[in-house]
Design goal:
transcription regulation, HTH_AraC, AraC family transcriptional regulator, 2 domains, 10 helices, Multidrug-efflux Transporter 1 Regulator Bmrr, Chain A, Homeodomain-like_sf, Arc Repressor Mutant, subunit A, 277 residues
């Protein structure tokens, strides 16, 4: 868990400005620290240098767009992250061990390997099957207590247990438990996935780790099934529904809103929410 307030603020800053030329100095200045001191703190808390973190996110976020924005050229997507065509191809291949063209071609598929269960293949449904379960909704902002993690989603169960125990005094009948995810585990190394676990709270909460999750327009899919099948459904929505719909993913990040959890039987009902425009 990342407990350093300034590191979390710097990550938020990087996320908001990922389509710009961000320097290590920019990040350190935003947090009002010297470049050398803050670089050391950032690497200590995240396991990566600021420069490596920014570069990795640019490569991984651009890969998501290659997968979901079929009609946008590779050159334009690379340019959105500050790369010339040749530099983007070189940087992408170095990070993903495949060219952007080959990656886009390979993503046009009906199944992918399951990163959390290596013996399984995630097989997708048709566009029509996803589309009949998706509602386009305007969600309000959420004021939440949050904790930020970098690591494997397989650890979510334990992290959620610890989180709800720590903040059980804030749990009410209408409290929502929400995950905010920043990475696609079919693209990002599973041990480097960034995510927030959150619970809604009223405006009088005086804790330091309170933030607002931006609402807006979302494509909402009601998932009702086993925990291990969440990845399959999410990938199907991205690879099939979003890629061939009339929508584009917005710069906000995906949310999972829990409606019911049966830990004993590993069954969950939740809304998978994709920000769209």
């Amino acid at each position: 868990m990342i407990t350093n307030q300034w590191v979390n603020q710097s990550i938020d800053y990087i996320m908001r400005h990922l389509d710009e030329e961000i320097s290590v100095e920019d990040v350190a200045d935003h947090c009002h620290f010297s470049k050398y001191y803050f670089s050391r703190v950032f690497k200590e808390k995240t396991g990566e240098s600021i420069y490596a973190f920014i570069k990795r996110l640019k490569m991984e976020h651009s890969a998501v767009r290659l997968k979901t924005e079929k009609d946008k050229s590779i050159t334009d997507i690379g340019s959105d992250y500050g790369y010339s065509p040749s530099n983007y191809c070189s940087a992408f291949r170095k990070h993903h061990n495949i060219s952007p063209t080959e990656f886009r071609k390979d993503s046009n598929t009906t199944c992918v390997p399951h990163p959390f269960y290596p013996d399984k293949i995630a097989r997708f449904q048709s566009f029509a099957e996803y589309d009949q379960h998706i509602l386009i909704q305007e969600l309000d902002d959420f004021l939440v207590i949050y904790e930020r993690h970098i690591g494997n989603y397989i650890e979510l169960g334990k992290n959620w247990h610890d989180f709800t125990e720590k903040y059980k005094e804030y749990l009410k009948e209408d409290t929502l438990l929400i995950e905010r995810s920043y990475h696609d585990p079919s693209i990002t190394n599973v041990d480097q996935c960034l995510y927030d676990i959150c619970m809604t709270v009223d405006e009088n909460c005086s804790l330091d780790n309170v933030t607002t999750i931006q609402g807006g327009k979302f494509a909402v899919y009601r998932f009702d099934g086993l925990i291990e099948d969440i990845f399959v459904t999410f990938q199907g929505i991205f690879n099939i529904w979003l890629a061939y719909s009339d929508y584009v993913m917005d710069e906000r990040y995906g949310l999972d809103i829990y409606r019911n959890v049966d830990r004993e039987n590993r069954h969950v009902v939740m809304d998978l929410c994709i920000p769209i425009k």
